[in-house]
Amino acid sequence: MIAAALALLLAQEVISSGSEGYTPPADSTPSLRIVGYVDLGWARAKGDGTSFAPGDTRIPADYGVDAFAPAVNSRGDVASTDSGGRFTNGFLPRSMGIGGHASFFINTVDVDVRYTHPTAPLLLFTRLQFLPRLSSRGEDTRALIEQAFARVIPFQNQEFALSVGKFDSVFGIEYLENEANLRTGITPSLIARYTTGQSLGAKAFYRLQIPGLWTALSVNLAATNGGTMVDTLQPQNASLTGTPVFSGRLGIEINLPSIEIKLGVSALDGPRNDQSQPGVRQKAAGADARMVFGPVELRAEGIRLMQGEGAGDKLNGLGTQTVVSKFDVWGGYAQLALGFDFAGPVRRACVYGRYDRRHAQFEGFIPVTVDRITAGARLDILENLAVKGEFLKNRELEGAPNVDNDVMTSSFVYSW
Amino acid sequence: MQIVLMALLLAASGKQQHDWLGAEMPLPLAVHTPQDLAFKNVAERQYLIFNLLASGKVAWDQGDFPTAAQRWETLLSLPGLDPEIDKVVRPMAEEARKQGGGKAAQVLPPPPRAPEKPREERRPATTTVEGTVSGGGAAGPGGAVITLRRTDGTMPKPQAVKKIVLQRGKAFAPRVLAVSVGSSVVFRNEDKINHNVFSLSPHFDTGLYGEGGEKEEVFDKPGVVQLLCNIHSSMIGYLVVVDTPYFAQADGAGAFSIKGVPPGDYDVETWHEFASRPTKQKLVVPREGAKLALTVAGDKQPPAFPPDKYGKPRQGQLGY
Prior knowledge:
The complex is a heterodimer of chains A (416) and B (320).
Chain A: H1 2-16, E1 32-45, E2 103-116, E3 122-131, E4 142-152, E5 159-168, H2 192-195, E6 198-210, E7 215-224, E8 245-255, E9 259-271, E10 281-293, E11 296-307, E12 314-316, E13 319-321, E14 327-341, E15 346-362, E16 368-381, E17 385-398, E18 407-415
Chain B: H1 2-11, H2 34-61, H3 65-77, H4 83-100, E1 127-135, E2 145-150, E3 162-167, E4 172-173, E5 176-180, E6 183-189, E7 195-200, E8 203-209, E9 214-219, E10 223-228, E11 236-242, E12 246-249, E13 255-261, E14 264-271, E15 279-285, E16 290-296
Parallel strand pairs in B: 1-16, 3-6, 5-11
Antiparallel strand pairs in B: 1-13, 2-12, 2-14, 3-4, 6-9, 7-8, 10-11, 14-15
Helix pairs in contact in B: 2-3, 3-4
């Protein structure tokens, strides 16, 4: 007995030496935090930077579908949307106005303001963005409040969060890395326009961990004034119908010691919010998967979205449009990334490739199928700088002539 | 090796005739904080000293000289034993060994060779370096880690220790902990929800574990280890692994004290979680000790988008 006691004492005598550490008082933590990033870019698109084929003499209304030009930055902005006088129905992305010229530009100046209450489980968050657009041929310079919400985590011992305000979509997974500093690559996927918008409303998140199975189940539900589309496809700061759109995602995470797998299904149902009749519905369903195994990350996502036909004009972030036909789209992407960490100034190096495909049709118009092959590399330097380069091979597979509009783009993101 | 020898020695000592309270260890003292642990350690050490001292005397009184010799020799082998106890026990231990026969335990340290000399002259004189740290920005200087590295002589190898970092209230406690290189840290989850602890450099990942669970990691390279939770992006903590025995952490007011420092020339380095780089300066420590006024910057923020365990940045405002 005394032998055991002595051994214990000697072992614990070692424990008792050295410092005991420091824990700051709860109210000493700074409660206001301002962070953000600046995203600068350089890009060159082939052709005239649009998806409008030179010499295409088809009915102009064919361009009412979304054969968008390829993106050049993380916002999904394209080199040009100059239609050359053809009819377009507002189903367009925003334009940097650089055409087919190699150009430098400022993509985004982002400021995130976070206030954390020192004792209550309350967070106030605002994401402000300034978008300088210096080309006279593209979008105007804009400043916007991308997000502004209050979040409460009411139970200390539960992973349950309630948010009210203007916030990110809960559909799919691409919204999680929709900002330039977070996204592995530069450009969003071909389906990001349907899943990564912000809306006003309320959302709830709950996650249940099951340690014995290395598993967690999560549910994310939102009731918002609009769907999950980006602002060029729907107004984001008002409800045109007064009826909420419900969206959500059910997920499962499997965290094994050397591999992480996350799977999810998403759904959306509500009024089509680019016009004012609540009886005209939009529905969407999606599935997503992520897997991380050592330096390898694989992610994939797919969506099917259907919108009913409206009777009046539609309103979106680009203004009032005249044709509100029935819309049906399916698409998805798969991305493979290989990343390595280093101890030197270059903290992490990553190469990645992605395949996107999308098939979209406005009722009464020719369906268009496009795909895209993306390859790129990202270097994270020191703690704040990310340098990315990316090549996008775009192909019009069906319903539109193939256009020489491949893109070489780059991004320099400084976070602070 | 010393622990093993003593444990074997005591295990071979036969049935104990008197169960003193000190033998019933670990003592039933609750440990919830690092302070509790330090208190328990001190109490158990005192209990064991008493146990060895008194049980040896009981054996002596009963004429059981081999047992008395073993008890006292073990007592005399304890590091840092009070010299007064040594002075009283050592002659009796030698007499017990002489009467009881057998061979003295190998762990018995030799008696003082020159009792006529003052004790201070037999050991290298040490002193205390103390002072205050200021700066650290809005968070203040608390938690700053001050290290001394000798430049005009050799330094003893720092002793590896075992420490506890709690996960409590979705936070690491302590938030900042300095440990010597080779030390191990036990991560204990005291929340009702599950946690994980990982670091990207050096890389480790405890996996997920629930309330009451513990995971232990050994840190064998000096440097700053950023502790994160793969479940809760708001959780952040720091281990500062040091390669010197002379170090301390500042309290909330910035005060610190490093005892047992031999006089000499030193490099002083002060690390703080909100300083982008540690401050460095030279120091000459005289026999009477030194007082320092150190400053750290407050120019660094925690990561705006804390990474997950695969290095991908997360958006903390999402709450998941």
